Amino acid sequence: MTAKKKNLVMIADDETHVRKYIGAIMKEMNSEIAGEAKNGKEAVEMFARLRPSLLLLDINMPLKSGKTALQEIIARFPQAFVIMLTSLADRETIEDCISMGASGFIRKDVNIDEFKAAIKQSWQAYKASR
User: Fold this and answer.
1) What is the DSSP letter of 4?
2) Which residues contact 129 (CB under 8 A, 6 or more apart)?
3) Is 119 exposed, middle or buried (0-12, 13-18, 19+ CB in 10 A)?
4) Mind listing the pLDDT tens digit for each residue in 34-86?
5) Which residues does 61 contact at the CB level (< 8 Å), separation at least 6?
6) By the 8 A CB rule, do 27 and 33 touch?
7) DSSP for residue 100
8) Is 70 helix (H, G, I), strand (E, B) or coil?
9) Residue 13 φ then ψ, to 5°
10) What is the pLDDT, as a whole number, of residue 127?
11) Which of 26, 70, 81, 111 has the smallest count of CB within 10 Å of its CB?
12) Which contacts qualify for 91-94: CB closer than 8 Å, 24 or more apart?
């Protein structure tokens, strides 16, 4: 019997507690945390090196915003599966991220079940579009 292969997930958020919280949720979803970035610059460099199955990318980060990091990652890796994380994004920011290539967005303040559902929904939409 072969074990189900775990998805490699990268988390980019400037807050340690948020990275740990999201990491715990992703582990519950049978994913392996490939890496954690604490700013947008580090996120771009780490993504290029690790090539994870999924990048969870905060919009507001130091050194390079999540939007700029997204733009750079999608330019180099057009098939990247990226979900944006936000605490307080307005509709325009979310639409900008989706138009730049993000597969979805999740508010950080949703409960665990909503977070998991948003990941699954974004994954299904991503697979259907590729």
Assistant:
1) P
2) none
3) buried
4) 999 999 999 999 999 999 999 999 999 999 999 999 999 999 999 999 999 98
5) 12, 13, 14, 38, 39, 40, 43, 69
6) yes
7) T
8) helix
9) -155, 140
10) 75
11) 111
12) 93/59, 93/67
**pLDDT at residue number 128:** 74
Measured CA to CA, the distance from residue 114 to residue 25 in angstroms comes to 11
* CATH class, range 7-119: alpha beta
CA distances from 38 to 25, 41, 61, 74, 111 (A): 18, 9, 8, 19, 23
E-strand spans in 38-98?
Answer: 54-58, 82-86
Q: Are 35 and 43 in contact (CB under 8 A)?
A: no
Which burial class, exposed, middle or buried, applies to 65 when counting CB atoms under 10 A from its CB (0-12, 13-18, 19+)? middle
User: Residue 44 is inside which H or E element, if any?
Assistant: helix 40-50
Q: Is 16 helix (H, G, I), strand (E, B) or coil?
A: helix
CA 6, chain centre distance (Å): 16
Round the CA-based radius of gyration of the chain to a whole number and report it.
14
**13 DSSP 8-state letter:** -
Pseudo-torsion of CA 88, 77, 31, 43, nearest 10°?
A: -50
pLDDT confidence of residue 1: 36
